[in-house]
Amino acid sequence: MTVFNSLAPGTYTVDPTHTEIGFTARHMMVAKVRGTFQEFTADVVVGETLAESVVTAEVQLTSVDTRNEDRDTHLRTSDFFDVENHPTMTFRSTEITESSLTGDLTIKGTTRPVTFDLEFNGVSPDPWGGTRAGFEATTEVNRKDWDLTWNVAVEGGGVLVSEKVKLHLDVELVAPAEESAQA
C-alpha cells in the first residue's frame, strides 16, 4: 500500500506553521543563497485515484525572506518578482504520480509547466481528531523562463545570481476532523 492510498478522499489544507516553501540560488557561483516564502495558501483535493487529485497553491511574493532585507527588497522590484504588478505566484497540478507532481507555475504573468520529484512521508492521526500527511517536493528551474532575468557579470567570468534555482517544498497537510471521521 502506498502512502497516497492511505489518504482518504477529501480536501486537505496546508498547515503553514509546519510547511516551508523555499528556494536556493547560487551567489557569484561560489555560495548558495536560500530563501523562503512566509505567506501562502494551498489545498490538495485527494480523489479516489491520483488522476482525480489536484494541488493548488498561491504564494504572496511580498513574503520572500532570504534573511537579508536589502536583498529581499531587491527581489520584490521589477528586476525580479515585480510584486507591485504581480503580487502572487500560483501553481495548479496537471498530473500527480506516486513519485512526481507536474503542473503549471505562474510567475510575473508567465505560465510554464514544471515537474517536482515527490516523496510522501506518511500519514498520521493528530491529537485534535484530524489527519496529517506530509510530503517533500523538489525541482530545478531556469528563472529566465519566467522573465526573472536581472543579473550582473562578475570579474571572474561568472554572474552574480545563477539562472538555475532549486525549489523545495516541505509540506504538512491537514484533513479537518469531520473529513477524517468519515474515512
UniProtKB/TrEMBL annotation:
SMART domains from the UniProt entry: YceI
Pfam families registered for this protein in UniProt: YceI
Family matches, as InterPro entries: Lipid/polyisoprenoid-bd_YceI, TTHA0802/YceI-like_sf
Xref: Gene3D superfamilies: Lipid/polyisoprenoid-binding, YceI-like (2.40.128.110)
Lipid/polyisoprenoid-binding YceI-like domain location: 11-174
PANTHER family on file: PROTEIN YCEI (PTHR34406:SF1)
Family statement drawn from the similarity comment of this UniProt entry: Belongs to the UPF0312 family.
The protein's name: YceI family protein
Organism: Ornithinimicrobium ciconiae
